[in-house]
Amino acid sequence: MGATMLLLYAVRMVRTGIERAFGSSFKRLVTQTSNPLSSAATGLALAVVLQSSAAVALLVAGFASTNTISFAAGLAVVLGADLGSALLIQVLSFKLEWLTPVLLALGGGLFIKSTGRKMKQAGRIILGITFILISLRFLRETMDPIRDSEFLPVLATYLEGDFITAFIAGAALAFIMHSSVAVILMCVTLVSIGAIPMQAGVSLILGANLGSALIPIRLSKGMSAAARRIPIANLLVRGPAAFILLIIFNFFPVIGYISSTNDAQTIINVHIALNLMLLLALPICKPLAIPLQKFITDAGSDEQITPTHQISVLSDVSAKLPQTAIICLRRETLRMAQLVEMMALPTMELFKDFNKERAQSILAQDELVNQALDGIRRYVAKLPLERISSADQKLALDLMEYAIALENAGDVIVKRLVPRAIEKSKNRIKFSAAGYNELVLMHEKLLANLNLAFNVLISEDLDSARLLVEEKSEMARIERSSRKKHLKRLSQGETISFESSNIHLETISSLKDLNSHIATIAYPILYRGGLLLDTRLKQLNAD
Questions:
Q1: Cβ of 295: how many Cβ atoms within 10 Å?
Q2: Distance CA 170, CA 183 (A)
Q3: How far is Cα 422 from Cα 425, in angstroms, rounded to an integer?
Q4: b/e 467-503 (16+ beta carbons within 10 angstroms → b)
Q5: Residue 272 reports pLDDT greater than 90
Q6: Chain mean position to CA 518
């Protein structure tokens, strides 16, 4: 159990490191292609990077919920991710124990000593890979004495004879552990030491493929219909394919065609063969959308109702109940933050291809933000202070301060970013390719930090709050770097950079300031947790 938990932790550690280093660019990578083959290739790369096809499926579902990616392109990405996860198993199954001390030294050194964010996360990724190798060695060492016991041979023989039970067991393990990579690596290890027979291992890993397809369905349960269609379509493709191969491999002598001298490699070959077969479904990705759109719809989608983000959750009744007042105040502040996110999302689109209706929509959202701040101020003024503890009074004031910061963030968008986009369109100004890419990267980082701020607002987690402040410093570093690169392009005489200079510099400054307003939620939480000093000024001696 210890080895299995280390394996799960290591897989998560690699994924966390990559998300923190490059997570803000995932959206652009996933959504910039529409060709099925290129979308599948993107999914393959992301699955190798994130160490999980289920994580990719959930990521794509989130993009589909905001209409950022089409159903066909999203399903192609997920099918490619299934193959990427299988290829990752092949790489991790190689005998790489000799690398363990080298990777520990390298990863530990980068993680502890590096000051740069990406180098620090690179150290985290390397350490995660090392822990995967260590956990697999622990699994082999643990199972060596167990395979000679009376229990394991009986269980292995039963699973070999009852392939349906083995298939269900593999699916259940993958679903419970939320990682098909971990389950399949464990099965490969057990087969390699002879703890379970190869035929039982085949049934288990085919079941794990089914379980892996169930994970994103469960995690996307509360999302919109557009988000849920892609994981369900993946299950409709992957589940029957896994079951068909299960029947074929257990009733027909075909496994010899993909077998290897090593039983462990044989079940890896089966896993790769299944996920290669899934790519045959790429041509039907688009037609599959029609029946799913018919049968999977949002409840009440035909009714004309006001979107929930436009409705305040505050009420006079709640203000009179101390036990619910703070909860309602937090929910309203979260709603306000989501309004700011909706304003920030399309800003780069305005710079790329200005659209008057989109600009008007942003201005309309700002009016909702202003109304929300006014409502929060009135709500806090009505709180029965005599019945609320001093800690809750302080929390209410902190939430109101953050609401003010969010209103300022909205002003940055409508008074600084939108006018710059209008100016760029009106004067037909163009950014250099490098300059526009720098803006896009800053915008992606901003959106990622907004989501992190949501988590901090809800959970008040100290680690997340600390990370949000670190991200603020990282955004300031990116802004300085972009400014220096822009000035260098000016010194090299790039005409296009001269024409866009003022807009470029004002935009990167606005994005940095917008991010600073968003990050303010972290400071009172860090202060209450004893992780923030009263002042950063150096104390001088009185004499």
A1: 9
A2: 8
A3: 5
A4: bbbebbebbeebbeebbeebeebeeeebeebebbbeb
A5: yes
A6: 19
Q: Are 30 and 446 in contact (CB under 8 A)?
A: no
Handedness of CA 312, 313, 318, 323 (dihedral sign): negative
Structure-derived torsion over alpha carbons of residues 62, 65, 71, 75, reported in degrees to the nearest 10: 20
Contact 510, 417 (CB under 8 A): yes
Place of tokens 């822009």: 486
All structural domains of the chain with their residue ranges: 2-293, 308-528
* Sign (positive or negative) of CA dihedral 347, 349, 351, 354: negative
Please check whether residue 182 is in contact with residue 151, taking contact to mean a CB–CB distance below 8 angstroms.
Answer: no
Using CA atoms, how far residue 46 sits from 19, 56, 62, 182, in Å, is: 11, 7, 15, 17
The Cα 33–Cα 40 span in angstroms is 10
Contact 410, 369 (CB under 8 A): yes
pLDDT band at 89; cut points 50, 70, 90:
confident
Distance CA 114, CA 97 (A): 25
pLDDT surpassing 70 at residue 24: no
Specify whether the CB–CB gap between 84 and 271 falls below 8 A: no
Q: Average pLDDT of 352-367?
A: 88
Q: Residue 301's pLDDT is what?
A: 46
**297-310: pLDDT as tens digits:** 865 544 444 455 56
| Mean pLDDT taken over the chain | 85
φ, ψ of residue 274 to 5 degrees: the values are: -60, -50
Which DSSP string do the residues of 208-271 spell out, in sequence order?
HHHHHHHHHHHHTTTS-HHHHHHHHHHHHHHHHHHHHHHHHHHHSTTGGGS--SSHHHHHHHHH
d(CA 357, CA 496): 28
Q: Could you tell me if 220 and 58 are in contact, meaning their C-beta atoms sit under 8 angstroms apart? A: yes
| % the chain with pLDDT above 70 | 89
Q: Chain-centre distance of CA 374, in angstroms?
A: 33
Burial class of residue 87 in the structure, from the number of CB atoms within 10 Å of its CB (0-12 exposed, 13-18 middle, 19+ buried): middle
> What is the spatial distance between Cα 482 and Cα 439, in angstroms, rounded to a whole number?
8
Radius of gyration of the chain (CA): 27
The class of domain 308-528 in CATH terms is: mainly alpha
In 3D, which of 248, 236, 136 has the Cα closest to residue 203?
248
> What CA–CA distance (Å, rounded) separates 134 from 9?
12
Give the end-to-end CA distance of the chain in Å, rounded to a whole number. 62
User: Residue 311 CB: number of other CB atoms within 10 A?
Assistant: 10
